[in-house]
Amino acid sequence: DTGVSQDPRHKITKRGQNVTFRCDPISEHNRLYWYRQTLGQGPEFLTYFQNEAQLEKSRLLSDRFSAERPKGSFSTLEIQRTEQGDSAMYLCASSLVSGQGDYGYTFGSGTRLTVV
Amino acid sequence: AQTVTQSQPEMSVQEAETVTLSCTYDTSESNYYLFWYKQPPSRQMILVIRQEAYKQQNATENRFSVNFQKAAKSFSLKISDSQLGDTAMYFCASTPGGGTSYGKLTFGQGTILTVHP
What we know:
The structure holds 2 protein chains of 2 kinds.
Chain A: E1 5-7, E2 10-13, E3 19-24, E4 31-37, E5 44-50, E6 53-57, E7 65-68, E8 75-79, E9 88-95, E10 97-98, E11 101-102, E12 106-107, E13 111-115
Parallel strand pairs in A: 2-13
Antiparallel strand pairs in A: 1-3, 3-8, 4-5, 4-9, 5-6, 7-8, 9-12, 9-13, 10-11
Chain B: E1 3-5, E2 10-14, E3 19-21, E4 24-26, E5 32-39, E6 46-52, E7 60-61, E8 64-69, E9 74-79, E10 88-96, E11 106-107, E12 111-116
Parallel strand pairs in B: 2-12
Antiparallel strand pairs in B: 1-4, 3-9, 5-6, 5-10, 7-8, 8-9, 10-11, 10-12
C-alpha cells in the first residue's frame, strides 16, 4: 500500500461543466475525508465516510457537490455546474479511528481544480 | 464546535536555530486530540506530531516538540536545530475525542515557515 492516491492531479474545466475526482485511501483505514484548500488557507472540511457510510457533510457545501464511497473502498467527489469559486485544491485523507484513539490523517497529494 | 487559531502568518529562522510556532484552540470537549501538520511547497501534507489532551506529558518527535498548556488552550510547536527541509506551511489542527465529530479535523489558517541558510 503506497498511501493515499488522488486522480487527477490537475483539472482545468470551463465554468458550467461537471468534474469528478477519485481518491483511493489506505486499505486498512476505515475513514475517508474530503477537504478543500484555497491558496494560503487551511483545509476546509467537506465530507467524510466511515466505511461506505457518509456520516457528515459540511453545511457550506452546496447541492452541486456530491460524494460517494461504494463498497467502502475508493471515493469520488463530483462537482456539478462548476463555478469559478470552486477553484481550489481538493484534498483526500484517510485515517484509522477506533476506540483506542485517533492517530491522524494520511493525506493524498490533492487535485487542483481550475475553473475558467 | 472547535476553532483553531494560528496568529503568525509567517515566520523565519536561521538554519540550526530553534523556532516556535503558536496555536490556540477552543473546544467544549473534555477529550480531544491536537496535531501539527506540515505542507511543503507543492507537496502533500504530512503529520508532524500528535497530542492527546488527557495526557499531561508534552509530545516529542525527534527535533519537534510541543508545549501543551491545557488551561490556556495553547498548543505551540517547537522545532529545534532547524533544517532547510523544514521550510513549509505548518497547520495546527484539533478533533474531538468522541461523539459524532470524532476524527474530523478542524485546521488553523497556517503559518509559513522559512528556514534560511
